[in-house]
Write a structure and sequence with these properties.
It is a single chain. This protein has 202 residues and is an alpha/beta fold. The protein has a single domain, classed as Rossmann fold, CATH 3.40.50.720. Helix content is 42%, strand content 13%. It is globular.
């Protein structure tokens, strides 16, 4: 049975992926206490102790704010978790298993402008480009980017939002299954949202 590691494992997307795939794979969903994606030593140790066949880089952080009034430490954390964390975990794993499959969870924010989300948008755009570079470097990697998704993180940011207009984490998890099953090309960037998810699945 292959082992899948999903970073940011306590989040709604990670848990939906786990529910979709459990029974077919050995699934690990470490939270920050077990795998701090920004810590080089801890990431190296984690993948030393847990042989991994598939890594889903899902850990995320966002705190929207204008660059003119921002808390620069928060902006730094956004870049470190979303971009450096993806680099850190991917490098730690590939040093031990060059044949591993990497699935990067991007965001529609990688290609859409949001005035007060500059650090997050820049980080996710970097994840998309890194995915393409790593594929060109010969690795099995793909980026799947959810649009607006019904998660507790989003509810915290937009408590009044109509939940009926959002992508469901369970449907997004089904697209991740397709990526694991090699339905997409290496290096590809797949945008997933409420309007196109049924088409992607069928």
């Amino acid at each position: 049975m292959k082992t899948i590691v999903i970073t940011g494992g306590n989040g709604d997307i990670a848990q939906a992926i786990k529910r979709e795939l459990e029974g077919e794979y050995h699934i690990l969903t470490p939270g920050k206490e077990l795998l701090d994606v920004t810590d080089v030593v801890k990431a190296d140790r984690y993948f030393e102790e847990n042989r991994t066949d598939i890594l889903i880089n899902n850990a995320g952080y966002v705190m929207p704010m204008s660059i003119a009034e921002c808390d620069i430490d928060s902006e730094k954390k956004t870049l470190e978790v979303n971009l450096f964390g993806t680099f850190n975990c991917t490098a730690a794993l590939l040093k031990k298993n060059r044949e591993a499959k990497i699935i990067n969870i991007g965001s529609s924010a990688a290609t859409k402008v949001h005035g007060t989300w500059s650090a997050y948008c820049a980080a996710k755009a970097g994840v998309v480009m890194a995915t393409q570079c790593w594929a060109a470097d010969g690795f099995d990697v793909i980026c799947i980017s959810p649009g607006r998704t019904a998660t507790k993180m989003r509810r915290g940011l937009f408590p009044q939002e109509d939940q009926g207009t959002l992508l469901q984490a369970e449907d997004f998890a089904k697209v991740i299954r397709l990526a694991i099953e090699d339905r997409y090309q290496k290096g590809e960037h797949i945008n997933v949202n409420k309007d196109n998810v049924e088409e992607l699945l069928h």
